[in-house]
Fold:
Amino acid sequence: MLRRLVPAGAAALSGVLLFLSFPPRPLWWLALPAFALLAWSVYGRRLRPAFGLGYLAGLGFLLPLLVWTGEEVGPVPWLALAAVEALFVAAAGLGVALVSRLPLWPLWGAAVWIAAEAARARGPFGGFPWGKIAFGQADGFFLPLAAVGGTPVLGFAVALCGFGLFEAVRQARTYRSTGALPRRTAAAAALAVLVPVTAALAARPLVDAGAEDGSATAAVIQGNVPRLGFDFNAQRRAVLDNHARRTVELAAEVKAGKVAQPDFVVWPENSSDLDPYANPDAYDVIDKAVKAIRAPVSVGAVIAPETGPLRNTQILWDPEKGPIGTYDKRQIQPFGEYIPMRSVARVFSSDVDRVRRDFGRGSEPGVFGMAGTRVGLATCYEAAFDWAVRDTVTRGAQLISVPSNNATFGRSEMTYQQLAMSRVRAVEHGRAVLVPVTSGVSAVIRPDGEVEQHTRMFTPGALVAEVPLRSSLTPATRLGTIPEAVIAALAAGGVGWALGLAVRARRRARS
Structure:
């Protein structure tokens, strides 16, 4: 019984350590012992036990990480989401156990982990990449690798180093008990640790916070909400008024010489849940605020056409011409902005009917021209998806805005987890990132991932900062999905090799 319980406890603990490595805690390094512990749990095991141990690790990781998903709708959606997403971690545990029989197994094991993350980012229902290992590394030593190959390369380096640590300890124990230390395996363990560390050091010159195309003065508005949770939508006009009021107050501060005149202003997602095209009073409130600040404003609004789905839209509002451009959110949130299999989902929770009308997807990347600056848009949930941020930069964005609405999730860790994503994206693409949020934490992030300014949660605020504009492309931006595809191919090759060896071993045993 003890032999069974110890690996199970170790696997669950590895998942908990992964969770603890994520913000708001600056404990990024806990990911390394987490991977080492996971490796100890599944190393050399048969596939079925390895799958179960991987599942325990997934639950230990995702249950606490995603607890905010049940903030307002109860535990059923939270538990269901964590249970489904943990299956991908279970598959990774199975894969790591399988390739642990190969030479250089930490390399194959790290590739298997990233391949599982890639699968989780694509399905079901469009994928759920929340909890990628890279997103816990915003304060970490390995962060510069995001500029080399994006989140797949960053996560691969962390997993490789963690598995290498376990292999180094295993080799040391073997040497202590037998007095023999095979050179090849010892060298492989050392390289698994040293290569990602050396690569991170070599990548540091790619991280640059300097301006290339001059700079712009940007303002980030956080208007706050009248109350937390889903019911904040019941006071939609109050939310709009809060953001308009804070913008007008900023205009007064500019006139008094307290802050610089912004070149442009960004509002959060859902800062106007009233459709300004259909509600003249909402239009007037926004227009007066934009005229007061005398700068173009990106306004987050819910557009409700007479027929068809709703649209989660950013509107480019000019102080003289009014609304002159739009961006519709492309990666919408399942069970939040739309309900797949509504009749089935209703069996498990009647709260699905709070989403009475589904949102539709946009089709074009969002890049606004704001006072001569090209601003890329990735709305809230989209920041978790590599492609959604990347293609704004390849379309010419000189900085990135991630308008979000976190009021639904109260004072949970969700807002800090999302902020960390934006910090990783800043390094990945070498762009300053603006994060306007309805209720906090709003922030201005430099291209090197450092937070220059931020607000407090559930407190109205306005951040005004001079941000560098950049047009060069990092290797990660240029390579796109190639690094992830290479790592996935590496994982497939390792798994295929291991399966081939297993089949041969069975044939030999039978003969």
Q: What stands out?
A: Confidence is low (pLDDT under 50) at residues 229-233. The radius of gyration is 24 Å. The longest strand covers residues 215-222. The first helix runs from residue 2 to 20.
